[in-house]
């Protein structure tokens, strides 16, 4: 047998069957086999991590790259550098905040041209469902987007308006017709208000958990009626959990995610004027955070993804009513979640299920999300015991704005391999369009 191109050994290799000592043998871009940790293997390169963990590359299915059009907020080069530095080897780019938004095949081609030659990790794309583009959904699906994002409330940018009740039903019916997926920002606009002051409490009160629950109830009802697969984005309120759990029990094709900031931060900790913490839906109480962890442990929430939604520092004015709503955390998600997960008794296998396997399954990305024979050799050397003091200015994100600045997080990414090659500054990420 010909030698392997790469062997990576670790006594803490996280596989779909759990954590084990193993030697991961790579030939070309794929994992050829898993062997015993001490197996004598001939390879061009043999890396022994010893007691450091070997993880599959994370899959972040909720990333706002913002290019073209708002590249000064972020861009494919900076976003994918940040992703790789945080152990993420595949991202799925959101359709809004770029100009034009990805609501037609023509707009997707504009985005692909902008991203060409810039991606340090593999990159897939969501399309958008907005008023008036029903005829564009099937062509976008056929071109290879992973599904469609829609809003039920204002998105924050005028060029990506929300779907009304009839429009949502029509879009779900259309997407169900070709077996697609709709991912939904679920907040009921009728229950959202304007903050009555600049502070965090006023902002939080203006976006109550009841607004999320009401929207999720509507999404579940329409998913049941149309048969469309639906995924609820960035669940921040535990009020949604019983609705989602009941839907799953009844066989409704609905899944849901949450984000690192909802699992690691709490409203009581938000300093006044520190609008790096502002996002929509908002960070809620510590008790609510505990309930989200319980929903994650029970499988009601399946994915943990970043909702990386950066902006320039000038948009984060010290007024929660006026500041841009979005949290930059693409590089920090793994460490943030591991810090809290370890404290609560969860394992690296749990974290990988939430942050790699489940998002890969959601976005239908075969070959991603696991250390297994035949999968892409997307690997991460991770020190789970390292303590890292976060300095926003040293992150790869284009703008040094993050609520994690000054916090100490547990865990450090040491090396990231994309399809068997270390991510070393030369972009060799690929576009993931359609089934492979």
UniProtKB/TrEMBL annotation:
Transmembrane segments: none annotated. Keywords: Hydrolase, Metal-binding, Zinc. Pathway: Nitrogen metabolism; (S)-allantoin degradation; allantoate from (S)-allantoin: step 1/1. The keyword Metal-binding applies. It comes from the Bacteria. Its EC number is 3.5.2.5. It is an enzyme of class 3 (hydrolase). Residues 54-423 form the Amidohydrolase-related domain. GO terms for molecular function: allantoinase activity. Its cofactor is Zn(2+). Gene3D superfamilies: Metal-dependent hydrolases. InterPro entries: Allantoinase (IPR017593), Amidohydro-rel (IPR006680), DHOase/Allantoinase_Hydrolase (IPR050138), Dihydroorotase_CS (IPR002195), Metal-dep_hydrolase_composite (IPR011059), Metal_Hydrolase (IPR032466). It holds the Pfam family Amidohydro_1. NCBIfam families: allantoinase. Belongs to the metallo-dependent hydrolases superfamily. Allantoinase family. Belongs to the metallo-dependent hydrolases superfamily. DHOase family. Class I DHOase subfamily. Homotetramer. Catalyzes the reversible cyclization of carbamoyl aspartate to dihydroorotate. This is allantoinase. It comes from Nonomuraea salmonea. The gene is allB.
